[in-house]
Amino acid sequence: MIHLETRRSELELSDVLNNRFSPRAFSAREVAEQELELVLEAARWAPSSMNEQPWRFVVTRRGGDAHARLLETLNPSNRTWADKAPVLILAMVHRTLSRNGQVNHHARHDLGLATAHLTAQATALGMGVHILGGFNAEAARAAFKVPEELDIVSVLVLGFPGDADQLPDNLRERESRRSVRHPLSELVRYESY
Ligand SMILES: Cc1cc2nc3c(=O)[nH]c(=O)nc-3n(C[C@H](O)[C@H](O)[C@H](O)COP(=O)(O)O)c2cc1C
């Protein structure tokens, strides 16, 4: 019997933050169109430098050819479990500013914010998101004809968390353990570094 620690912070963080984790076990439950639209809408409303909204997403659903092509770009260690998730999303950013073509130094920062919004909304709906950097971005560029002006940053694995028993031995036990964090005292200084 796996004991699941759900709440993580000892402080009264909002549930969508405190209950979030990066699942590897996904249930067979489909993500409804409305649910998918809501998590994407959450990303849409993220703040961004100069309201540039540089994020772009390619959404693929399990069973379709696009999902299979995106899955193919994942590192094998990620593919072994991500293949069960009903939705895979390729996350990208425009690296230049639409107003003047200069480099947008905050583009990836803003994609991170949009992804955080998406993840919080997904958590509120009972879903989980596992963000992946372990994939071949150039293979994804070719597979999805992504223009050069976009940086390909991550793959978002989205679905409802499932039973850890479906995972291989090395991941099953890990699924029940929640990751830890540095103490605030290590992250925050007051008044001066
Ligand atoms: C940009 C980024 C890339 C990541 N890449 C991977 C990955 O390739 N494979 C993986 O299993 N987890 C990946 N993760 C998940 C992290 O390992 C995870 O968020 C971290 O260990 C904290 O655990 P938690 O999300 O459950 O709190 C990635 C997370 C982020 C934000």
Helix fraction bin: 25-40%
- Which H/E pattern describes the elements? HHEHHEHEHEHH
Spans where pLDDT lies below 50 across 5 or more residues: none
- Gap from first CA to last CA: 45 Å
Shape: globular
CATH fourth-tier homologous superfamily of the domain at 31-163: NADH Oxidase
Number of beta strands: 4
CATH class of the domain at 31-163: Alpha Beta
Ions, cofactors and other ligands present here are: flavin mononucleotide
Helical run tally:
8
**Mean of residue pLDDT values:** 95
Structural classification:
alpha+beta
Assigned CATH architecture of the domain at 31-163: 3-Layer(aba) Sandwich
- Biggest β-sheet: count, sense, barrel? 4 strands, antiparallel
Radius of gyration: 18 Å
Provide a descriptive summary of the structure in words.
This protein has 193 residues and is α+β, with helices and mostly antiparallel strands. It has a domain at 31-163: 3-Layer(aba) Sandwich (NADH Oxidase). It is 36% helix and 16% strand. It has helices at 15-18, 33-44, 65-72, 76-82, 107-124, 137-144, 169-176, 184-187, and strands at 55-61, 87-94, 128-132, 150-159. The protein has a four-stranded antiparallel beta sheet, with helices on both faces. It is globular and about 50 Å long. The model has no long low-confidence stretch (mean pLDDT 95). The protein binds flavin mononucleotide (FMN).
